[in-house]
TrEMBL record:
Region (Lon-protease-like): 359-467
Notes on the domains: The middle region has homology to RecA with ATPase motifs including the RadA KNRFG motif, while the C-terminus is homologous to Lon protease.
Gene: radA
Source organism: Phycicoccus sonneratiae
PROSITE patterns noted in UniProt: RECA_2 (PS50162)
Keywords linked to the UniProt accession: ATP-binding, DNA damage, DNA repair, DNA-binding, Hydrolase, Metal-binding, Nucleotide-binding, Stress response, Zinc, Zinc-finger
Similarity annotation: Belongs to the RecA family. RadA subfamily.
Residues the record lists as binding ATP: G99, E100, P101, G102, I103, G104, K105, S106
Protein name in the entry: DNA repair protein RadA
Its job: Plays a role in repairing double-strand DNA breaks, probably involving stabilizing or processing branched DNA or blocked replication forks.
Tree of life domain: Bacteria
Domain RecA family profile per the UniProt entry, residue ranges: 70-223
KW Metal-binding (keyword) present: yes
Sequence motif: RadA KNRFG motif, positions: 260-264
Length: 467
């Protein structure tokens, strides 16, 4: 760097990355430090600047005198979406909804816009839906199909930021939906729509309008091929809520998760059914994650996970077969591959399972993704059943975290999991040791406590538990 500075002539230009601050003597299209595209720009000589104090129009108040009524969430009319947001939309909040193309983001937000327009205190709320990807006629056709028509729902097809702000000035909405932030561009900033500078400018302008006018804003965001939100990382820091739309495009099930939420929890999940007539919330989706077969099959195990306050019953399936490769194959769908590999290693070392020269395939039912460590025990028992070709007794569920020492650790919310299992008709539960002493067990449910992986495999596949 010193050599670069020495070779730079007096008055020569410098270039700096707006994302990470990396400097170079010449312009490059991609930052050499953070690898961001289009973030390197020319800067002048570094000079010290001072800002004079201005007149305060709104003096600071003691925290006890701050009015909290402006931060009360208002329901959107879509219960599953409100669950994820923490009760609804807060006036002035900016929500970024991200997901893969065609997964249902526009359909969900149009449904939210239509319901919000019909759920005002006096019968109506003004809602402005701005589409930069479709014409107003296309949006109306979808609104008719999903029954999202409302008199106070205004549509506009715009891609210019100044025109969008003019529409907001004219309509004076309480809710603004922009689909999508990558399609809107500002004439004051160089570059095409969707680049780093444009996305930052568009988001900053919409956030400023939302805070100044108390308008709730829903922004649709694209994702890259690896699943991350497209655009600068600062976009996620600027908004108040980041919502991730998940699901298999070949399945009707859609899951909505809050990755960031300044007004509520980030561990809640909303479940939706996407069909030809729109998107419908699923208040009780547990049955979607079970195979529905009537006979016990080796290599399957049902577990109960907690998504926020909601217990979900999910089935894990495993298939173990002899490998013809020098390195056995490990394939997963809906499960964390790192945790599956860990469970395979624990089975091999602690339970003496003959898994080293076999291919292993694991999947969840219904397209759901399990990331909670409580699913470790179900993965273990599914693999053990596939290796021994011995099915678990019918009506069995299992949950617990597996450690590298082969121990089965307790998990939070054990009795909520047991209550959900009993509600769905399960009669046998394999759980970590200590659950029975922490509270009552639901009627009709027999509990088998295990302390190690070897004990869990040996007793779950052979022993009938005593209540």
């Amino acid at each position: 760097m010193a050599g670069t500075t020495a070779r730079r002539g007096k008055g020569a230009s410098a270039f700096r990355c707006s994302e990470c601050g990396w400097q170079t003597a010449k312009w490059v299209g991609r930052c050499g430090e953070c690898q961001a595209w289009g973030s390197v720009a020319e800067v002048g000589a570094v000079t010290a600047r001072t800002t004079a104090a201005s007149t305060v129009e709104r003096p600071a108040l003691p925290i006890a005198e701050v009015d909290v009524t402006h931060a009360v969430a208002r329901p959107t009319g879509v219960a599953e979406f409100d669950r994820v947001l923490g009760g609804g939309l807060v006036p002035g909040a900016v929500v970024l909804v991200a997901g893969e193309p065609g997964i249902g983001k526009s359909t969900l937000l149009l449904d939210v816009a239509g319901r919000a327009a019909r759920s005002g205190e006096h019968g109506e709320r003004r809602v402005l839906y701005v589409s930069g990807e479709e014409s107003a006629a296309q949006v109306r056709a979808r609104a008719e199909r999903i029954e999202a028509m409302a008199r106070s729902l205004y549509l506009a097809s715009e891609t210019d930021l100044a025109t969008v702000l003019g529409q907001v000035e004219q309509v004076q909405p309480e809710l603004l939906v922009v689909d999508s932030v990558q399609t809107v561009a500002s004439a004051e900033v160089e570059g095409s729509a969707g680049n780093v500078t444009q996305v930052r400018e568009v988001a900053a302008s919409l956030i400023q309008v939302a805070k100044a006018r108390g308008i709730a804003v829903l922004l649709v965001g694209h994702v890259t091929k690896d699943g991350s939100i497209a655009g600068p990382r600062v976009l996620e820091h600027l908004v108040d809520v980041v919502v991730q739309f998940e699901g298999d495009r070949h399945s009707r099930l859609r899951l909505v998760r809050a990755v960031k939420n300044r007004y509520g929890p980030t561990d809640e999940v909303g479940c939706f059914d996407l069909s030809d007539v729109g998107i419908v919330g699923l208040a009780d989706p547990s049955g979607l994650f079970l195979s529905g077969r009537t006979a016990a099959v080796a290599g399957t195990c049902v577990t109960v996970t907690l998504e926020g306050r909601r217990p979900l019953v999910t089935e894990v399936q495993a298939l173990v077969t002899a490998s013809s490769l020098a390195t056995p194959r490990r394939a997963t769908s809906g499960l964390d591959s790192a945790r599956v590999n860990m469970v395979l290693a624990v089975l091999d070392k602690r339970a003496r399972a003959p898994i080293g020269s076999s291919d292993a395939y694991l999947s969840t039912v219904g397209g759901v993704r399990l990331a909670e460590p409580a699913a470790d025990l179900a993965i273990t028992l599914a693999l053990a059943g596939a290796i021994t070709d011995r099915p678990l007794p019918e009506g069995t569920v299992a949950f617990g975290e597996v450690g590298l020492a082969g121990e089965v650790r307790p998990v939070t919310g054990a009795h909520r999991r047991l209550a959900e299992a009993a509600r769905l008709g399960f009669t046998r539960a394999v759980v970590p040791a200590g659950v029975l002493g922490a509270g009552p067990v639901p009627d009709g449910l027999s509990v088998l406590e295990v302390g190690t992986v070897a004990e869990a495999v040996g007793r779950a596949l052979h022993e009938v538990p005593a209540r």
